[in-house]
Design goal:
Largest sheet: 6 strands, mixed
Distance between the termini: 34 Å
CATH superfamily of the largest domain: P-loop containing nucleotide triphosphate hydrolases
CATH architecture of the largest domain: 3-Layer(aba) Sandwich
Strand content: 25-35%
Shape: globular
Order of helices and strands: EEEHEEHHHEHEHEEH
Number of strands: 9
């Protein structure tokens, strides 16, 4: 497979990808993907099931060592990944999960600050099974941000949460990203989630990028704004979904 060099092409670019190809057996999952992600930019990646979204995220994370592929892929060494399930270690407390691999008193202090940022101060000694699903995802987010990553990769991190909790997590993620300014790649199936959070939205279809849309709306974004609705219609069309008054492309 192609080398994952960890070397950046430009001081203003956090991710640099050219002609990225990934194959499983005889099936091509990513077919010549080109993308740059700038420092501090929030990018959402949409696509139907099987379009290659998670494969692309795993490639950026360097988690696809056994996959056949080619191309140039440069990312920073200090990146973090948040998955759909929190993946907390059940035999470790909340603070121990957040500070995993961070030594000493400095690590403990950083962990406490990260938990306070996700509004879980006072829960340091709790066990994962004592937390709600939303609280577990907040711990996972604290664990990712405590290391001050240059790149945050999020693979449908809110997909298992109820609608109200998802909205609260959107607000929290928006706030934390504005504060820490990592580049973000969020993989999601939810068009409204992408428009609500991202500076830029990509659509992947059969392994190729077919849309690269800049979202120039003020935050927080109003779902009732006609511009929000227009972007939604455009994205749904690219995803092959018919909307009233417009047939899918």
């Amino acid at each position: 497979m192609a080398p994952h060099t960890g070397q950046l092409k430009s001081a203003t670019k956090t991710v640099h990808v050219r002609n990225l190809v990934r194959r499983f057996a005889a099936k091509t999952i990513l077919d010549g993907v080109d993308i740059d992600i700038e420092e501090g930019q929030f990018v959402a990646l949409l696509g139907r099931s099987g379009s290659g979204k998670s494969t692309f995220l795993k490639a950026l994370a360097g988690l696809d060592h056994d996959v056949e592929g080619t191309g140039t892929l440069d990312t920073p060494d200090n990146l973090s990944v948040v998955f759909q399930d929190a993946r907390l270690l059940p035999w470790r407390t909340v603070i121990q999960n957040v500070t995993l691999g961070l030594p000493g008193a400095a690590g403990q202090e950083a962990g406490r600050k990260a938990l306070a940022e996700v509004r879980l101060e006072g829960r340091e000694a709790a066990w994962p099974n004592q937390l709600s699903g939303g609280e577990q995802q907040r711990v996972a987010l604290a664990r990712s941000l405590v290391r001050q990553p240059s790149l945050l990769l999020a693979d449908e991190p809110f997909g298992a949460l109820d609608a109200l909790t998802r909205l609260k997590m959107h607000d929290l993620l928006r706030e934390l990203c504005a504060r820490h300014r990592p580049a973000v790649l969020l993989v999601t199936h939810d068009v409204d989630e992408a428009i609500s959070l991202a500076d830029r939205i990509l659509v992947l279809d059969e392994g190729r990028l077919i849309e690269d849309l800049r979202v120039d709306l003020p935050a927080p974004r109003d779902h009732g704004d006609p511009r929000f609705a227009s972007i939604r219609t455009q994205l749904l069309s690219r995803l092959g979904v018919e909307t009233p008054g417009r047939r899918a492309a």
